[in-house]
Amino acid sequence: MATQARMFARGARSVGRARDFVAAAVRAGDRADDIRVCVSELVTNALRHTPAGRLLLVRVVAQEHLVHIEVHDAGSGEPHLCAPADTDDHGRGLLLVAALADDWGTADRDGPGKCVWAAFKLPGATPPAAAER
């Protein structure tokens, strides 16, 4: 298992930098595009809800058949799926994450804010029940 983490400034350029950081940290094959889109959405959401002057933390945990991405921010509030109207220009980020990731959610963290995570099974993964037999 390899874990890498990096802090990013609160700014629009951090979305692309975080995406590149995660892409360089994992070899995800067919899942690479899904992971890149989800990192973009999670970091964009974190930027919208992080107070000025605060940093974001992006953590990647790469295992043989699983990639776990975490985005930590100091913003308040609990992320939730929205039901945007066709004419809305926001509110689809977590819908994309829910559609592309194998699982996602939130986790407690030390200090203010929240951690939003997404997990991706990589090709060739053995289902847990089959591995236990």
Q: Rounded to an integer, what's the Rg over CA atoms?
A: 15 Å
The count of strands amounts to 5
Order of helices and strands: EHHEEHEEH
Q: Which strands sit side by side, in order, in the main sheet?
A: 1-2-3-5-4
| Straight-line distance between termini | 23 Å
CATH class: Alpha Beta
Average pLDDT figure: 85
- Poorly predicted regions are 128-133
Structural class by sheet pairing and helices:
alpha+beta
- Approximate strand percentage: 25-35%
Superfamily (CATH H level) name: Histidine kinase-like ATPase, C-terminal domain
Query: The biggest beta sheet, please?
Result: 5 strands, antiparallel
- Can you name the CATH architecture? 2-Layer Sandwich
CATH fold-level label: Heat Shock Protein 90
User: What proportion of the residues is helical, as a percent range?
Assistant: 25-40%
Global geometry: globular
Compile the SSE list and pairings.
Layout: E1 2-8, H1 13-25, H2 32-49, E2 56-62, E3 66-73, H3 93-100, E4 103-107, E5 114-121, H4 128-132
Helix pairs in contact: 1-2, 2-3
Q: Can you walk through the features of this model?
A:
33% of the residues lie in helices and 26% in strands. The chain is α+β, with helices and mostly antiparallel strands. It has a single domain, classed as 2-Layer Sandwich (Heat Shock Protein 90), CATH 3.30.565. A 5-stranded antiparallel sheet has the order 1-2-3-5-4. The chain is globular and about 40 Å long. The model is unreliable at 128-133 (pLDDT under 50).
